[in-house]
Amino acid sequence: MREWGRILARSMIAIVVLAGAYLAVAWWTGRAVPAALVVEGVSVGGMTTEQATERLQAEFAAKVKAPIRVDLAGTNSSFSLEPATAGLTLDLPGTLAGLSGFTVDPSVIWNRLSGRPERPLLVHVDQNRLSEALTAQAAKVQSAPVDGTVSFVGGKVVTTPAHNGLALHVDDAARKITQAWPRVQSVTADATVTEPKVTQAKLDAAVRTFATPAMSGPVTIVIGDKTAAVTPEQYAGALSMVPDATGALAPVVDTEALRGVVVSATSGFVVPAQNASIVLEGGAPVVRPSVAGVAVDTTPAADLLVKAMTAPDRRMALSLVPAAPALTTEAAQALGVKELVATFDSTFPNNPDRTVNLTTAANTINGTLIKPGEVFSLNGILGERTAAKGYREAGMILNGRLVKATGGGVSQISTVIYNLAWFSGVALTEHQAHSFYISRYPAGREATVNWPTIDNKWTNTTPYGMLVQMWVSGSQVHGRMWSTKVYDVEAIEGPRTNPRPGKVIRDSSAGCVPQSSIVAGFDITVKRVIRKAGAVVKTESYTTKYDAEDQVICTSG
């Protein structure tokens, strides 16, 4: 029994010694990393964790700060990333994890003793920041495909080169950077290259086959034994090139613009046709015959010009054709302008400037021919009354008062025209009476006019032409309408009703125009009765409401 006790005691002592030795070894191996440890080629064996961390930070400091170049596969494009901006950092605690510190785990102690000579360098990647950085930097080299273009400016060919589109595969670039950094400082990432619809080859073909020849020099137009030339500067603006379904650039032509270029270039070969005209000779209408002219047939001009632009001889041929007048002798005779159908004369007061305006307007209107269905517009014929046309300042009514205005007095011409239209039986399309009654005009049967707001229009509703004759003489505006008589027209004047009194106004303003007397305002209705072959075909009523005319006494000066 004693022997067994001694054996047991010695065994316990041995166990205690071995345990102590084991703990000592565990303590010793936990003081530092394994003696033979190498991390990415950097020896840190036998160092404490702090020492190993400092060593690795120093060794990889340059690589950690160095930009990462990203090459786009299949292209010459690349860009750089700053690791810190892209969310890339070293994970040194993870790299050295488990290599030091007290443990009684036999496997850990054995690994520390046996060494594990190589250990990878771990990194931490913020994938969101990496993707954002890649997207931002890639935008500097990425692009959408750009079609090649051709334009024609000032007779010259102007081109825009074609460019392929380029797009980085951001996920592939992120994956490769995550795997490679910081061991390598560049990666090649997948990219997509997209050709434009109009490639450089197609652009070059368009320039070679059409654009350059088209702008290479003038085109000669041949008409019989005569020639004319058009230059690229003249026709370039009518040309463009657009891609077809295959991306090939084809010429597009503004046909009318090209034809206009040819018309202008050949205008010297044209003999204009002369229209027939209806004039008054010996107190009666006479038809002066039309004369045919000569024109260039420019119908095929645009197509021929485009073909000639690329032809070796750069020539095109056109022909001369007769040019018919717009109004032939026969058509003028058929208008039936042969007799007086209406007359009207209007007396005016002595005022030299006003008389000049009446004469200028009458001369402009005299001889106007209105065909069946056409509209006579007094403003359309006279236009704006300006000093350049010979008009002077004279009185006109504005807001119920007389004022001075260039062209003042032309409303008397308008009243004569209105009465010619009235008694001719045509449609009275647009007119407006004066604001107050003027005694030299027939009450309710007069019309004012003002540029451009108030017009006097009538429509020729007869089957015959109407020739307007006007002149000024003997303190009267004389008006005559020549045509074929269709209607007999009567004016029936109703009573003057609803009288309105005027008042006396004293005006000290510099532009005051005196008005000598008070004329009461009133309402009046005039009936227009139109007969054809003795039968009434239409009865119309026109009501006019005249304001009172005030007496204006100018007190300035």
Keywords:
single chain; 557 residues; Ubiquitin-like (UB roll); 4-stranded antiparallel beta sheet
Summarize the structure.
By secondary structure, the chain is of the alpha+beta class. The chain contains 14 helices and 36 strands.
Fraction in beta strands: 25-35%
The order of strands across the largest sheet is: 22-30-29-23
Low-confidence stretches: 16-32, 100-105
Query: How many helical stretches?
Result: 14
Question: Which class of secondary structure composition applies to the elements?
Answer: alpha+beta
**Count of discrete domains:** 3
Q: What is the radius of gyration?
A: 52 Å
* Straight-line distance between termini: 160 Å
User: What would you call the shape?
Assistant: elongated
- Mind describing the biggest β-sheet? 4 strands, antiparallel
| Mean pLDDT level | 88
Number of beta strands = 36
Helix content: 25-40%
Structure in words:
- With 557 residues, the protein is of the alpha+beta class.
- It is 29% helix and 31% strand.
- The chain contains 14 helices and 36 strands.
- A four-stranded antiparallel beta sheet has the order 22-30-29-23. Strands 31, 32, 34 and 35 form a four-stranded antiparallel beta sheet that branches.
- A hairpin with a 5-residue loop joins strand 3 (68-72) and strand 4 (78-81).
- Helix 5 (127-138) packs across helix 6 and helix 9 (255-265) packs across helix 10.
- It is elongated and about 170 Å long.
- The protein starts with a helix and ends with a strand.
- Mean pLDDT is 88; it is low at 16-32 and 100-105.
